[in-house]
Specification:
The complex is a heterodimer of chains A (272) and B (302). Chain A is an alpha/beta fold and 272 residues long. Chain A has 7 helices and 17 strands. The longest helix of chain A has 14 residues. Chain B is globular. The chains are: A alpha/beta (272), B alpha/beta (302). At the A-B interface, strand 4 and strand 14 of A face helix 1 and strand 5 of B.
């Protein structure tokens, strides 16, 4: 059994927002929320993408039509073949968690959807803060309303829906009133740094899903290194404790060449 | 029992992290040292910042890995921070350099000698770039020319060319390098290039189409190369290629290697591979009544 990509056919494409597409495919794998696949478009490129749906029958990824690779993926219809290998990395853990707050920024809600599913199955009391630049970019809003009702909190940068402002402000408000066992988050790293800082201050455990440019996906090449951690294998989900000791989290990332750059200079990797 | 002196490098055991594996930054190299590597090799540093190939770049096939990463590098001008951080590394640090001409090799060597790495590996054997490396390691004359030029720049810092199994006569290349001033020989780099095609996709899988083959599949070739080199040179050898467990490492030592490189094994056994391999070597040595690893270096020779 090798780790080479397996060619699978896309069975369904779901348009989520104007710029987010979910691709379903049959790929039998034991996957945990927060894990990712290396997704190969033959002849084009391969990227690490978190699973946004996990079931026995099928898996799905959600892609933001942003870069040249993802724009291509967004043009795919049912029947298109893609290569997938994985799942890789450590997912989110719900061990000992009875009460959770989940914070998603932009397309960060993609890897958090299977976590919501898991929380509901396990009877974990779950609140979800969904943030985006504007109302049009709120990914998985409908699904989250169906699943969580009043426990969904929406924020937009421009106030076009929900509370105007950032997810971190809503998190701080919620944490003023309650104490969850764990805060889960995925989104722009600058936002997650804010989430971590708030959780550390309140002494609440957290788990955050990170991204760095990856090559092998299985902990050999070292490309996705952050401090002495390989995001692909030691992560992509890290505990707040680990990240609070990191010199690079929220500050630095690396280019394809391996050259260090500040996150601000770089923008953000995340393509969903 | 496993203490090794390799060209003046004092190592707690003979395992060495191979270049191109986990070697992108100082912090991870230091972790590999803490996890048990006797020495660590940085990812090859080139003359200018370079992105490398598109993905897929590293794959596991049935009997090993295949890669065409394309020598990404921040360039030697951006290497200072990593070198400074590596001063606190628990194990000796080997820097690795590449260039696409003799001038570039010496430029990079000159650019990093100030950081005083314990040793400089000269990558004259990467099969993945059309200009860089390839031509140098296949010819004894050209390999020697690179080694001579780099030796002139490096002064007291030991230098070690990394050879390719693609050479028609790897022993001749090694001997020419020794004559040109190499203080050690590193063999072998990945084999090939090879390729993986996916039948369903009807396409090569690596973006670069071709890539260097490593892992268990190439062990017999690595052993043969090191065996031949041992007979041709008197400088110590860093032997690598498909070493996955203690017994493999013992066999590599018997072929003639003083130090033993570990790369692809980290895929199969994780970052713990160095400690596991060292422990397995010790177990075998105790069983066999071997007191020091030195006793078995070259033991397979007549």
């Amino acid at each position: 059994m090798s780790e080479l990509p397996q060619i699978v056919k896309i069975t369904k494409v779901q348009r989520e927002t104007g710029e987010h597409h979910t691709l379903f495919f049959n790929f039998k794998a034991e996957a945990a929320p927060g894990q990712f696949l290396m997704v190969w478009i033959p002849g084009v490129d391969e990227k690490p993408i978190s699973l946004s749906k996990i079931s026995k029958e099928e898996l799905a990824i959600t892609v933001q039509c942003k870069g040249s690779w993802s724009k291509r993926v967004c043009g795919f219809e049912s029947g298109t073949k893609i290569g997938v290998r994985g799942p890789y990395g450590n997912g989110f853990s719900t061990e000992g968690v009875k009460k959770a707050i989940i914070v998603a920024g932009g397309c960060g809600s993609a890897p958090l959807m299977p976590l919501v599913e898991k929380c509901l199955v396990e009877g974990i009391e779950t609140k979800f803060i969904l943030g985006a630049q504007n109302a049009k970019k709120l990914l998985f809003k409908k699904e989250l309303i169906e699943k969580l009702g009043d426990n969904l909190y929406i924020t937009t940068d421009d106030g076009s829906e929900g509370t105007k402002g950032f997810t971190t402000q809503t998190l701080e408000e919620l944490l003023g009133k309650e104490k969850p066992d764990c805060v889960y988050s995925c989104g722009p790293e600058i936002m997650m740094k804010g989430v971590l800082d708030i959780c550390q201050k309140k002494k609440i455990k957290s788990q955050l899903s990170l991204e760095r440019y990856m090559r092998c996906g299985f902990g050999v090449c070292g490309q996705c290194v952050m401090d002495d951690l390989m995001v692909c294998k030691d992560g992509p989900v890290f505990s707040g404790k680990t990240l609070s000791e990191s010199a690079e989290f929220g500050k630095l990332t690396r280019l394809k060449s391996g050259k260090e750059v500040s996150l601000k200079e770089f923008g953000d990797w995340r393509q969903c | 029992m496993l203490e090794t002196d390799f060209c003046g490098l004092k190592m707690k055991n003979p395992t060495v992290l191979a270049s191109g594996v986990m070697g992108c930054n100082a912090a991870l190299l230091k972790r590999v040292a803490r996890e048990g590597a006797g020495a660590v090799t940085m990812k090859s540093i080139g003359p200018k910042e370079k992105e490398g190939h598109k993905n897929p770049t590293v794959l596991e096939w049935e009997h090993g890995l295949i890669n065409a990463v394309g020598l990404p590098t921040a360039g030697y001008k951006n290497a200072e921070k990593e070198f400074k951080e590596l001063e606190k590394c628990k194990s000796p640090v080997i820097a690795s350099i590449y260039g696409s001409s003799i001038e570039e090799f010496t430029e990079v060597a000159e650019g990093i000698i100030g950081f005083e790495p314990a040793m400089i590996e000269i990558n004259i054997s990467c099969p993945n770039t059309k200009r860089e490396g390839q031509i140098f390691g296949t010819s004894p004359e050209v390999a020697a020319e690179v080694v001579k030029a780099v030796a002139e720049v490096c002064g007291k810092i030991p230098i070690m060319p990394k050879l390719t199994p693609q050479a028609n006569n790897i022993a001749a290349v090694a001997a020419a390098c020794e004559q040109a001033g190499a203080n050690a020989i590193c063999a072998i780099n990945t084999l090939g290039p090879g390729m993986v095609i996916d039948a369903d996709a009807r396409k090569p899988v690596l973006a670069n189409k071709f890539g260097g083959v490593s892992g268990p599949a190439i062990k017999p070739i690595a052993l043969r190369c090191v065996y031949q080199i041992y007979e041709a040179v008197s400088v110590p050898i860093l032997g690598l290629g498909g070493i996955s467990n203690g017994r493999d490492a013992i066999e590599m030592a018997m072929a003639g290697a003083t130090a033993i490189g570990v790369g692809s094994a980290t895929f199969y056994r994780g970052i713990e591979a160095f400690k596991l391999i060292s422990d397995e070597m010790k177990t075998w040595m105790k069983e066999q009544g071997v007191k020091s690893i030195k006793e078995i270096v070259g033991a397979a020779h007549d």
